[in-house]
Design goal:
about 150 residues; alpha/beta; UDP-N-acetylmuramoyl-L-alanine:D-glutamate ligase; six-stranded mixed sheet; globular
Length: about 150
């Protein structure tokens, strides 16, 4: 696995891969190796309730993964699942973003609505041309016409 990771520039993990063993352990190992080799780690929350024993287990596991990722992507509802075990009442998009930026994420993307799914790849491609994760300075961008809230920091 390490040979493939050393050749990559980024690793993308999903919440679905975290839902059951042995893919959960393999995913955490891949994240560990990716970070050790300087890769950017993306976490697409991708919550699918039918793949988890409980929402609480999903929430705890997602927290453990998100704390190790540079970019966290999810719908508003998926971020709410991540917060369910904390007992904190619904946080605003800004509060969620600041929480994860404070825990070390470089980019937090909170998706609202179906149009975002069609445009997200293009937005990330454009951001990749303009920013590198190593050189980000504190930015906050709200693209409300797409119902996308994008938070970035270094």
């Amino acid at each position: 696995m390490n040979v493939f990771i050393k050749q990559a520039k980024a690793l993308v993990i999903t919440g679905t891969a975290l839902s059951k063993s042995p893919s959960r352990e393999a995913t955490f190992k891949a994240v560990e190796l990716a970070r050790k080799n300087g890769l950017v780690v993306f976490f697409d929350i991708d919550y699918r309730p039918y793949t988890w024993q409980s929402e609480e287990i999903a929430s705890i596991t997602y927290h453990m993964a998100a704390e190790k990722c540079h970019v966290i992507i999810g719908t508003r509802e998926e971020f709410e699942v991540m917060e369910c075990y904390t007992g904190i009442a619904a946080l605003s998009d800004t509060e969620i973003a600041h929480k994860w930026l404070g825990k070390g994420a470089d980019i937090v993307i909170i998706k609202h609505g179906e149009m975002v799914h069609m445009h997200l790849h293009r937005i990330l491609s454009l951001l990749g041309m303009v920013f590198s994760l190593q050189n980000l300075r504190k930015h906050m961008v709200q693209a409300t016409h797409l119902h996308l809230v994008l938070f970035m920091a270094c």
